[in-house]
Amino acid sequence: MILTANNLSCRRGGRLIFRDISFRVASGSALVITGDNGAGKSSLIAMIAGLLPPAGGDITLSNDQERAPGELIGLMAHRDGLKPSLTVQENLSWARRLLGASATGIGEALEAVGLSHAMDMPVEHLSAGQRRRVSLARLLTCSRPVWLMDEPAGALDQRSIRGLTALMQRHLAGGGMIIAATHQPLGLDNALTLHLAPPAIDAGDEEPFWEDDDCEDELLMGYAPARAAP
Asked: Which keywords does this Swiss-Prot/TrEMBL entry list (predicted)?
């Protein structure tokens, strides 16, 4: 499985965010995207997820599975995309029905992120860091080998970040792929890096428009539906 981006450009509101971005990521590999606030990290994640069309260039995901590219991608967006009134278990059960269930059950996924005790708690009662860990558990328990992660370490304490790193490394060791936008070191060995810098201003452009990293409110659960879980 290989994801390739060729000469990607992004404009929002007619203004240039980035241009001529290219990279290639294979199974078992990670790409870490860095850059200042508003440099386009969230927009690039949205493009890869198929939720934002590029202004130029293209993205391909070649695979030997009988699944559409969108059915291979799991998204951990900047916002958690959890329904506050539902319990942790109900949120994860709904995600498994929509996205397809992996071999990792809900209980096992919650144990992996240290939230076994919170299974029956409404999400609205969780801290920001706990909600982030539920989002990670959602990736673990759904059948999506490509993980797109926007600030995965946001709101996490140092112990939880170490746990996040261990789970990401386990996913890579199992042949998965990770593309993560982050301000914080993630501790991934041998990860590729891509730094988004402000582009030069075209003659016809106004000053570059630096999007807010929180602008992708629509990217809460931007996955293609998959088979229902048994």
From this structure: ATP-binding, Cytochrome c-type biogenesis, Membrane, Nucleotide-binding, Translocase, Transport
